[in-house]
Amino acid sequence: MSKVTTLLVEEAEKLHRLIDYHNHRYFVLDDPEISDAEYDRLFDQLIQLEKDHPELRTSDSPTQRIGGAVLKSFKSVPHRLPMLSLNKANEENEFLDFHRRILELSEVAEDHIEYTIEPKYDGLAVELIYEKGILTTGLTRGDGTMGEEVTSNLKTIGAIPLRLQSEDNTPSLLEVRGEVLLSKNDFEKLNESRLDKGEEAFANPRNAAAGAVRQLNSAVTASRPLDFVAYGIGIVEGSKIDSQNLLWRYLYRWGFKTPEPAYLCADRNAVIEKYHRILANRESHSFEIDGTVVKLDNFALRKKVGELSRSPRWAVAWKFPPSQEQTAVEDIIVSVGRTGALTPIAILKPVRVGGVTVGRATLHNEDELKRKDVRIGDTVIIQRAGDVIPEVVKVIIGRRTGDEREFLMPEKCPICGAGTERLEVQAATRCTNVACPAKQKEYISHFISRAAMDIDGLGYKIAEQMLDRGIIKDAADLYFLTKENLLDMERMGDKLAQNIIEAIDKSRHPSLKSLIFALGIPNVGGHLAAVLAKQYGSIDEISTKSIEDFMSVNEIGPIVAKAISDYFQEKKNKEFLIRLKAGGVSFPFEKKRLSELPLSGKTFVLTGTLSLFSREEAKEKLELLGAKVSSSVSNKTDFVIAGENPGSKLAKARQSGVSIRDESWLKELFENNGYLPKKY
């Protein structure tokens, strides 16, 4: 090999490792070290180098993530070790049955049994095969014995390392098993984009992820924001791993995301406690999870306990209560929201879904009602996610008898009797009456909510009573109330009245994001409120911008841009903002140069449960002070804030020598910079 060629090989190898390193920091650690522009320059250098010298293009080159190859079909490939399914436990007593079988089969004392527990992801299971540290093959699970070879598609996923990051204990052959996923946030954005283009929305993140991986054109796969979490292994040669707990650590070192939260449990009671903790935090998880996976930690004990033909005896999927159920539509009514939107609601035969009795489900709007063809008397499948109202997923057409009745949207508002209208570019039918009582009640409920002005103790019923009695006419009137105004209301004692007045007073100093969200601008939810706050820095600045200005902001399209512009041009809204200021509500200005902020350049990681703030609130305030909040500990982390029951991040911080602080330190930090926790 000539000297010039040797230098080129070394340059290509250097670019490979540098780009792999920054991919890992961005996609896995969520802690980038360089700007997007710097990354693009490195990537462009490698593309040009491989274009000039095609012999330098290798299978593990970062350029192979781009996609573009179009296949006629996928090749079926056998798994060296079957990818088994898991037996299920739906109740605690079924988990205890599993535990008893483990004791019988392992023939060891109960105090020698340790388990691990992790979230059960609802994605597409795949196997990644690494030979001498290089990704050579990617397979879907298929039927467990045969999978489809989708290597080129899996290479487009940034969270999948094309080359193992660490050479420590690197096997000569490694089969990594995990789940291809789409986060809930990315799923919503993907569906919004598809609907804007007139394409059909995906039913759920799993379908979107699975469909992307099985695209014959890998460029389509590359266009989807897919993620990957590794949780297991198949065949391993040239490395000694003897427990699940150790496996997690090696997977992390090799460059993979691993399940979070994940726990090593000393006994069955610890498993039960961690199951309920993961269940309680289910809706705050970035990905859809439908249960937990409990495994024997010790691999030698796993071998002794053994496997069945379709499932291992040493693991069980302890499922969450079902989030989908079948029931009957007894009626369809219409509710009126804060923007005047008329929403059809299915009144259901009550059924338990996700541990909650459900008696109604949203049908969203007239278009969805027609698309799903929901009729009174239909048998339907409903779905519940989090604390939002459940929705009708689909009608079971085969259960129709012919007695079902179609529902037509009303031409008049069911609350005030005013006419309705539907703009050509919008899906919602709206009440045209500005003073519609239903609008006011729903808007007040939105305004006082935790994500908006966070007026603790002032619930919907009290606010509704205030409106009905004429004590307030709109949300701005709240800031002119006295305790005496409240004492005339039903069931209003002196202490409750005082608490409400104090809560209103505390709400006079919101973050800019919360204030924007509280205004109830059509189509502007919490995420876009944060985007506007970051982009413009003040309400006054936002109010001067044009539709074209808003459209230049990433994530804002023409419909939303017009809605924002229209809101600030509307006379009644201008008057409302003036009255809020007169009532003592501060309009924060949050746009400072980053270098001027007290925590500029500092990176924080939060772990465990915080008692004084929600995690989102702590993250928001740290970012307002200039800090970066990362999801994982790295050598760039300055502080780890440890709440109650911290996870593996605390151990990593101790190993790395990162400064660890408790919640009282964080509270003092916020107080010194003018940010009191909302619960304080």
DSSP helix count? 24
- Average residue pLDDT: 86
Radius of gyration: 28 Å
Helix content: 25-40%
Task: Give the helix/strand class.
Answer: alpha+beta
Broad CATH class of the largest domain: Alpha Beta
CA-CA gap between termini:
69 Å
What CATH calls the topology of the largest domain is: D-amino Acid Aminotransferase, Chain A, domain 1
Sheet-strand content, in percent, reads: 15-25%
User: Stretches where pLDDT falls below 50 for ≥5 residues?
Assistant: none
Quick tags:
single chain; 680 residues; alpha+beta; Helix Hairpins; D-amino Acid Aminotransferase, Chain A, domain 1; OB fold (Dihydrolipoamide Acetyltransferase, E2P); 6 domains; 7-stranded antiparallel sheet; 5-stranded mixed sheet; 24 helices
Blueprint of the fold:
Elements: H1 3-28, H2 36-52, E1 76-78, E2 88-89, H3 92-106, E3 115-121, E4 124-131, E5 134-140, E6 146-148, H4 151-154, E7 173-181, H5 184-196, H6 205-213, H7 218-222, E8 227-237, H8 244-253, E9 263-265, H9 268-280, E10 289-296, H10 299-305, E11 315-319, E12 324-336, E13 341-353, E14 356-362, H11 366-372, E15 379-383, E16 391-395, E17 420-421, E18 429-431, H12 437-447, H13 460-469, H14 483-487, H15 494-506, H16 512-518, H17 526-536, H18 539-543, H19 547-551, H20 558-569, H21 571-582, E19 603-607, H22 615-624, E20 628-630, E21 639-642, H23 648-656, E22 659-661, H24 663-672
Parallel strand pairs: 2-11, 19-20, 19-21, 21-22
Antiparallel strand pairs: 1-6, 3-9, 3-10, 4-5, 4-7, 7-8, 10-11, 12-13, 12-15, 13-14, 13-18, 15-16, 17-18
Helix pairs in contact: 1-2, 12-13, 16-17
